[in-house]
Amino acid sequence: MGIRTVEEYKQSLRDGRKVYISGERVEDITKHRVLGLTVDTIGAAYELAQKGDQKTRDLLIAKHPETGEPINRFYVTPRTPEDLANRTKAIHTLMRLTGGLPFGKDIGTDCLNAAMAVAKQMGNKQYEANAKNFLEHLRKNDLHTCGAITCVKGDRGKEPAHQKHPDYYLHVVDKNKEGIFVKGAKIHITSAPAANEIMVVPTRQMRENEADYAVSFAIPANTKGITFICRNGRGPWSDKEFHADRPVRELTEAMIVFDNVFVPWDRVFMCGEWQHSMNIAYTFATFHRFTAISYKVPNVEVMAGCAVAMAKYNGLFKVSHIREKLADIAAYVETLRALADAAAAKPVMFGDIAVPNPLIANMAKLHFASKYHEFVKLIQDIGGGILATSPDKKDWDNPEIHDYLEHYLGGSADYSTEERMRMIHETMRHVASHEAAFHEVTTVHAEGSMAAQKMMILHESPLKKYEMRAKIAAGILPIGTPVD
Ligand SMILES: Cc1cc2nc3c(=O)[nH]c(=O)nc-3n(C[C@H](O)[C@H](O)[C@H](O)COP(=O)(O)OP(=O)(O)OC[C@H]3O[C@@H](n4cnc5c(N)ncnc54)[C@H](O)[C@@H]3O)c2cc1C
Fold first, then answer.
1. In the prediction, which pLDDT does 215 show?
2. CA-closest residue to ligand 1 atom 38
3. Which of 102, 103, 127 is nearest to 116 (CA)?
4. Ligand 1 near 190 CB (within 6 A)
5. In terms of CB atoms within 10 Å, which of 164, 285, 376, 403 comes out highest?
6. Is residue 232 domain-shared with residue 372, that is, in the same domain?
7. Rounded distance, CA 4 to CA 241, Å?
8. Within 10 A of 226 (CB to CB), how many other CB atoms are there?
9. Does ligand 1 have an atom closer than 6 angstroms to the CB of 188?
10. Is residue 366 part of a domain?
């Protein structure tokens, strides 16, 4: 099959999976007001791979490295900086053309690439073969896979083995000749209810007494014992919003409950090898932070554009303090872009798998998460209080008050009032709405908290080298002492 149509993708979701949202069981998620948007957002990527222009299809569709058959770009295991750069380009293109984030394969393959790299490092041929076979299954059937890493975790101050009950972290409860049984819950899993397969990786390092928690595997979303409990979302455009002529794009996250779920051995990539749990979690995090910095660039470009446009509509583009703020905005975006490019250009090789540069990928994620709120503040500052109090589209459409709005809400004479109103509404969505608050929290936590990035930056940075350079400078070590 190789490349599916949107209809084939949608049909594959009508498989009896157990999905709840706002307390209600949903039989067909493709038709649900909120979950349907997630399906359509992911579906938009399937559509572009089928019907996009030649350049887009060349980017989204790659050749199977052995057979030459068409496969989705995300199912190319990265071997070179170019493979990593192509992943980034595919994410940028998908976001710009669909107007959203069609995360259908990215996080799942971040997990699978990590599982594959770590199976090689463990020297476990069976796990390696399982990971390779699973990849072939994804390639052949063009499946959507989510990545389930984050456990619900209970008391954050306690390790998995010392919690009130054993299920705050996903773990193996039984094994037999055919496979393993797992119990626990993963949370915040992006686009999970609309996935074909769930790819599971441990959320943290496990110790010897936590070997049952060192488990990685993949299973179909409709497997017995799996329940999705989804976040509610904004739903389609309302008649109160000025908006572009394209559908809302949104992904829904879910808590996935694993209630004694059976996983056959040929779908297991780690089971009990606690010594390697840190490595798989760490390698996943590196791949995933690279995905994150790739999708953030098109996002923050649009937000920066709102600031530029609002400065112009308000007649302030040439004012010095506004230009200073625009410089800070541009520096935020371009630093992120430069770091994302550098992370792809300088990978670390795990055997023949190219892992994005861990130091640079973590620096990039820390940059966007730690400075995002300041970036939002600058846009809010330039836009003005109208971002909080703007009349809505229904006011604009009401002939009794329309002329007042037209007359009084204009800005620079170079632009129409309607254009300014449209940009105000676009900017509000990013910096003064329920969605904006969602993104502020997401920027901090998704792809790991800032403390997690700092831990990895410390681990990857040449602290010893810095120290030796200082000692040479201070005359404690002689000039010419080797430092590398
Ligand atoms: C929109 C969204 C989408 C996401 N998508 C996915 C996904 O697809 N797949 C997936 O697996 N995950 C996903 N995540 C989860 C994300 O990776 C986590 O939110 C993140 O790792 C933080 O974990 P947490 O939410 O449990 O926060 P917590 O762990 O509760 O963290 C809160 C704070 O406590 C600190 N903290 C926690 N534990 C400790 C400790 N032991 N010692 C010291 N400090 C500690 C953290 O550093 C942080 O500052 C998503 C999250 C969001 C918001």
1. 98
2. 156
3. 127
4. yes
5. 285
6. no
7. 34
8. 19
9. yes
10. yes
> Residue 102's pLDDT is what?
83
Q: Provide the whole-model pTM.
A: 0.95
Encoded tokens for 82:
């170019």
Domain contains 99: no
CA 448 – ligand 1 centroid, Å: 5
The whole-number average pLDDT for the span 67-95 is 95
Q: How far apart are CA 121 and CA 199, in angstroms?
A: 20
Pocket test for ligand 1, best of 186, 230, 362, 449 (most atoms within 8 A of CB): 449
Looking from the CA of residue 451, the nearest atom of ligand 1 is: 47
Is residue 144 classed as helix, strand or coil in its secondary structure? coil
What is the rounded distance in angstroms from the CA atom of residue 165 to the CA atom of residue 356?
37
- Using the 3D structure, point to which of 205, 240, 272 is the last residue of a domain: 272
CATH number at residue 27: 2.40.110.10
Average pLDDT over residues 289-309: 96
Mutating to test ligand 1, I would choose from 445, 447, 454 the residue with most ligand atoms within 8 A of its C-beta, which is 445
Across all residues in the chain, what is the average pLDDT? 96
* Per-residue model confidence (pLDDT) at position 484: 84
Contacts of residue 256, defined as CB under 8 A and 6 or more positions apart, other chains included, come to 148, 185, 186, 187, 189, 192, 198, 226, 227, 228
> What's the CA gap between 404 and 104, in Å, rounded?
45
Q: For ligand 1, what atom is nearest to the CA of residue 450?
A: 47
* DSSP-derived secondary structure for 390-419: ---HHHHH-HHHHHHHHHHS--STTS-HHH
Residues 173 and 227 in one domain: yes
DSSP letter assigned to residue 104: S
User: Of the residues 251, 272, 293, which one is the last residue of a structural domain?
Assistant: 272
End-to-end CA distance of the chain: 51
Q: Using one digit for the tens of pLDDT, what is the confidence trace for 28-58?
A: 999 999 999 999 999 999 999 999 999 999 9
Cα 35 to ligand 1 centre (Å): 23
Q: How far is residue 220's CA from residue 306's CA, in Å, rounded to a whole number?
A: 41
Residue 315 in domain? yes
pLDDT value at position 1? 58
The confidence score (pLDDT) of residue 408 equals: 98
What is the three-class DSSP state of 369? Answer: helix
Please say if the pLDDT value at position 160 is more than 90.
yes
Sheet of strand 197-200, all strands in order from the earlier edge strand to the far edge: 145-148, 197-200, 215-220, 268-271
* Residue 239 sits in the same domain as residue 130: yes
* Helix spans in 104-200 (H): 106-122, 125-141
